[in-house]
Amino acid sequence: MAALIRRLLASTFAYQAPSILSALLAIVTLRLYTGHLSTADYGYAENLLTAIIFTSILLRFGIGEAFVRFWFDDEDHARRIGLARTATAWTLYASTAITALGLVFAAPLSRLILAHEDATLMSIGLFGLWVFTNLEMANALLRVEERLKVYVIAAISNILLTVALTVGLVVISDEGARGYVLGNYGASAVILVALWVLHRDRVSFRPPRGTRVLLRFGGPTVPADAAAFALNVVDRTYLLHAQSADAAGRYGFAAKLSTVVIVAVRGFQAAWPPLAYSVTDEAQAARLYARVTTAYVAVTGTVVCGVLLVGRWAVKALADDPSYYGASEALPWVALGWALYGLVLVLVTVAGRAKVTTRNFPATAAGLVVNVILLVALVGPLGIAGAGIALCGAYVVIVTVLHVLTRRLFVVPFEWGRLTRAILVLATLGLAGEFLLPTHGATGLITRFAVLCLAPPALLAVRVITPKDLKAVLPGNR
Fold first, then answer.
1. Could you give the residue ranges of the DSSP H alpha helices within 145-281?
2. Confidence band (pLDDT; 50, 70, 90) for 336?
3. Cα-based angle 223, 227, 231 (whole degrees, multiple of 5)
4. Cβ atoms of residues 89 and 208 within 8 Å
5. What does the DSSP assignment read for 372-425?
6. Helices 259-278 and 282-318: crossing angle, nearest 10°?
7. Is residue 437 helix, strand or coil?
8. Which range, 20-29, 226-235, 275-284, 363-372, is most confident?
9. What sign does the CA torsion over 82, 217, 233, 292 have?
10. What is the per-residue burial (b if ≥16 Cβ within 10 Å, else e) of 181-205?
C-alpha cells in the first residue's frame, strides 16, 4: 500500500510541477493582464476558454477515458500501439470536422456563447478547441506509460511559450481578449506538433478503424463528464447574461486565483486513473481508494481553508485594477468547488473499474439541475458569491448521488471517521478565523496565517493523518 501511495505522490507531483510554475508566473502576469484587459474583456476571454474545454469533452466522446482504461487490459505491446493509433486518429478527425463546421458559423456562435458578436475571437477559440482536444490525447499517451519527465518538459515548455506569446499579444500589441485566447493556444499548437513527432509510432493520420469498443465504453461517460464540467460553463454564462460581462470577469478572476487548489486537483486528475486501474488485486485497490480519499480531503481541505482565510490579500496583490477586487467574494466558494470536483474523480473511477459508466450521468445531471436552481435563487441577492455557492451545492449533490449509485459496483471501505474529523477541524479553523479576525491590514493577514498554520498539527492531533501514515510514504521506507 505504501509503495502505491508513494507512486501516486510521485506522479501527482510531476503533473503538478508545470501548474506550480504557472501559478508562480501568474503572480507577475495577472497584474500585467488585469492592467491591460477590462473586466469585460477578461470575462469574454475566460468564458470562451471554459467553453473550449466543455466542447472538447463532447467532441472526444470519451475516447481518452476509454484509451486509458483499456490500455491496462492488454499487456501486448503491438495491440497497445494499435489502440493508441486508433484513439489519436479518432480525435484528430473528429476535432477537425467540428472546428471546420464551427468556423462557418463563427459569428452566431459568438453571440450565443459570449452575448457579444466577435467572429474573429470565436474563430481563435475554435482553433484553440482543435489544439486543446488533440493535445489532451497526446498527453494521455504519456500518462499511461507514466513518462513523467517528458510530460513535465512538454508542459513547462508550453507554459513558458504561452506566457511569452500572451504578454506579447496582450501587453505589447494590446490585442485584448483575442490576444489572451490566441496566446493560450498558439504555444500549445507548437507543443502538440512536437509530441506528435515524439509519438510518431503511436499517432495515426489515417481514418480511424476499430473504434466501436472504445466508443461503447467512452460514450456513456460523455454526458456525465459534460454535465460535471458544464457547472463551470453555466455559472459564467449565467453571470454574463443575467448580470454583466464585468461580473463574469470578476468571477473568472476568482476561478483563476483558485489555481492553488486547481494545481492539486489537476495533478491528482492526471495521476489517479492510471494508478487506480493498474492495481489488479480488488481488496488492495479498495483499501487504496479509501486511503487516497482521506489524504485528498485533508490536503485540499487545508488549501481551501487557507483560501478562505487569506484570499482577500491575494486578490489585491494580483489585480492591477481595483475593479477586480470584488472577486474575493466568490474565491473561497470556487476553491471549495474545485476541491469537491476531485472527489467526483474518485467515485468516477469506481464505476470505471467496474466498466459500468452509465451510473455517472444521473449523478452529474442532478448536480447540473441543482446548480441552475441555485444560480437563479442566489445570484440576484448575493452576486458572484451566489454563483460560487451554487457550484459547491451542485458538486455536493454529484458526490452524494455518485456514491449511492456506485457503492455496490466496487465496495470501498471509506474512512468515515477520519473524513468527518478532517471536515470538522478545517471548517472550525476556517470559519473561526473568518468571523473573529480582522479582514484587512497586516494584523489580519498575520493572525489568519497563524490560524492556517494550526491546520496540519490539528489534523495530526485528531488522527486524520498519523505519524505512521507519514513515515510510510517517505522515500526509502518499505
1. 148-166, 176-198, 212-218, 221-238, 245-257, 259-278
2. very high
3. 170
4. yes
5. HHHHHHHHHHHTHHHHHHHHHHHHHHHHHHHHHHHTTTS-----HHHHHHHHHH
6. 170
7. coil
8. 363-372
9. negative
10. bbbbbbbbbebbeebbebbeebbbe
| % of residues, the chain, pLDDT over 90 | 28
Cβ contact 324:315 at 8 Å: yes
Q: Which residues are CB-neighbours of 121 under 8 A, at least 6 positions away?
A: 44, 48, 110, 114, 177, 178, 181
Residue 234 burial class via C-beta count within 10 angstroms: exposed 0-12, middle 13-18, buried 19 and up: buried
Q: How many residues does the chain have?
A: 478
Comparing CA positions, the residue from 22, 59, 269, 262 lying closest to residue 143 is 269
CA atoms within 13 A on the CB side of 94: 23
Flag whether pLDDT at 477 surpasses 60: no
* Separation between Cα atoms, residue 18 and residue 274, nearest integer Å: 19
CA distance 106 to 65: 29
Distance CA 466, CA 40 (A): 48
**Grid coordinates in use for 8?**
501516486
More confident residue, 277 or 474: 277
Query: Which position has the grid cell 482543435?
Result: 130
> CA–CA separation, 308 vs 299, rounded Å?
15
**pLDDT of 387-443, one tens digit each?**
999 999 999 998 898 888 877 777 888 899 999 999 999 999 999 999 999 988 899
Name every residue whose Cβ is closer than 8 Å to that of residue 422 and which is 6 or more positions away in sequence: 294, 297, 298, 301, 459, 462, 464
Containing 22, the helix (H) or strand (E) segment is helix 2-36
Q: At what angle do helices 282-318 and 245-257 cross, to 10 degrees?
A: 120
Contact criterion met (CB below 8 Å) for 273 and 346: no
Quick: pLDDT tens for 371-389. Answer: 999 999 999 999 999 999 9
Rounded mean pLDDT of 166-181?
88
